[in-house]
Amino acid sequence: MIPFIPVRTSPWPGQSFFLxxxxxxxxxxxxxxxxxxEALSTPEFPTEQPQAREILDPGKPLDIYKSxxxxxxxxxTGRTRRAEFWWFVLVNLGFYVSLLVLAFIxxxxxxxxxxxxxxxxxxxxxxxxxPSLALAVRRLHDTNKSGWLLLIGLIPLVGPIVLLxxxxxxxxxxxxxxxxxxxxxx
Length: 186
What we know:
Blueprint lengths: L5 E4 L7 E4 L13 H8 L12 E2 L5 H9 L12 H28 L1 H17 L1 H14 L15 H11 L15 E2 L1
Antiparallel strand pairs: 1-2, 3-4
Helix pairs in contact: 2-3, 3-4
């Protein structure tokens, strides 16, 4: 019995990569039955995409964060991409952690400075509530769901998990009742 050993072959001159069929140690080529060889050599990939559209660049994380905090501060209409949503969440989390560390460092120096650090943390938290809610509503709109589904998050244990699933799934590729897809250019 011949062991399963990778094979070196090349469709382009001067280049090689490994496939099944060649015993590399002895240099001999292993022959497989025709159906196995055909299955290995002819992958079945679609030659065309169903809709050839250009995908928009999601941008840099801090640019996305700045856009959500300024231009789209209280915009509850339209749709937003997964990338925009998750980059905002990541940068926002980074700011929260940074402010919390700053509050602990200032608190270790003086109680007054610690209070100032906590005040900065609270002011930032209050300032980011509206854009976070607006972004979450637009993300739900991208999956063709009403923004009122945010209230599901109030259900203990199950609600946040359901919202997480809604945030993770891909949006509708075409136009839905909330507008054109922000991911694709038509």
